[in-house]
Amino acid sequence: MKKIVWQLFYWFALMCWIGVIFWFSSQPNLQSGLERWQDLVLRKIAHMAEYFVLTYLVLQCLPRRIGRVESALALGFALLVAIFDEYHQRFIPGRHGSPVDVGIDTAGSVGLLVLAALSNRRKFGYTHQGGGPSGVGGRLKI
Question: What residue segments make up the domains of the chain, in order of their start?
Answer without folding.
Answer: 2-123
